[in-house]
Amino acid sequence: MDEVTIVVAHSERTTLRVGDVFLKVDANPANLAVEVEAMALAPVPTPEVLWHNPPALALAAVRGTALGVLGKPSLASPAAWAAAGAVIRQLHEAPLPPWPGRRLDDIRTRLDTECEWLTRNAVLPTDVIERNREIAEAALRPYTPAFTHGDLQITHVFTDDDAVTGIIDWSEAGQDDPLFDLATLTLGHEDRLPHLLAGYGQDVDHEIIRAWWSLRSLSAARWLIEHGFDPNTPGAEFDVLRARM
Question: In this entry, which stretches build a coiled coil (predicted)?
């Protein structure tokens, strides 16, 4: 029998790998249901669903390697990043999934709540929090929703020989701001944004991308800390926030 590897484990979700099979167990079965439906609808490479029996989902491994990891330089070529941009554009131009996306009022409320928590607990200097809150405001504007991945971290996009072989972890997919996906993928890898946009297309407001970098980093910090992750590791969320100063 192959060794069982814990890919990620926290109170909400656990992912295990056994050979070429990934087993995901989620405390909220609705997340896995969204993931399965989103992968069926998305016109981009996704993992093969082996079986789905709530609260568990088994997926086949995708070929290739991730574009990189947060906190370390990406070893992927500019061509691989451009290929990722082209595939993401295909996703964003696809018909919308049938379920609704996030509401701007809810995003704003969460952002204000998380900034208050960061300030009250002195997690970051006040001026860093306040400056990034100002920058984040630009993302909170009306936009045309697109079919988005919703959690397009750099570890979720796999390439091989400069071609995208699979995009994983679709539980947050829905109707949302397409620039949020681009910002999430380049979080902590700002130097790769030109390469990504070479494939995606240049009709992108860079100020909004920067706003989403700040907004995502501020909003995610408490969750990361409370679930055993460290946003203060080099190159991670807190460095992204400090870089705005």
Answer: none
Q: Summarize pLDDT for 229-242 with one digit per residue, the tens.
A: 999 999 999 999 99
Multiple choice CATH, 62-242, 3.90.1200.10, 3.40.30.10, 3.30.413.10, 3.40.50.720: 3.90.1200.10
In angstroms, rounded to a whole number, what is the distance separating the alpha carbons of residues 136 and 108?
9
- Each residue of 33-62: pLDDT tens digit? 999 999 999 999 999 999 999 999 999 999
Of 40, 176, 10, 218, residue with least CA distance to 48: 40
Inter-residue contact 61 to 20 (CB < 8 Å): yes
Helix (H) or strand (E) holding 125: none
What sign does the dihedral 114-118-121-123 (CA atoms) show?
positive
**Domain extents in the chain:** 62-242
Are the C-beta atoms of residues 209 and 186 closer than 8 Å to each other?
Answer: yes
Residue 183's CB is within 10 A of a number of other CB atoms, namely 25
Structure-token pair, residue 219: 């909003």
Burial per residue of 141-178, b for 16 or more beta-carbon CB atoms within 10 angstroms, e otherwise: eeeebbbbbbbbbbbbbbbeeebbbbbbbbbbbbbbbb
| Dist. CA 71–CA 58, nearest whole Å | 29
Task: Please list, in sequence order, all residues whose beta carbon lies within 8 angstroms of the beta carbon of residue 109, skipping any fewer than 6 positions away.
Answer: none
If you write DSSP's letter for every residue of 187-242 in order, what string do you get? TT-GGGHHHHHHHH-S---HHHHHHHHHHHHHHHHHHHHHTT--TTSTTSHHHHHH
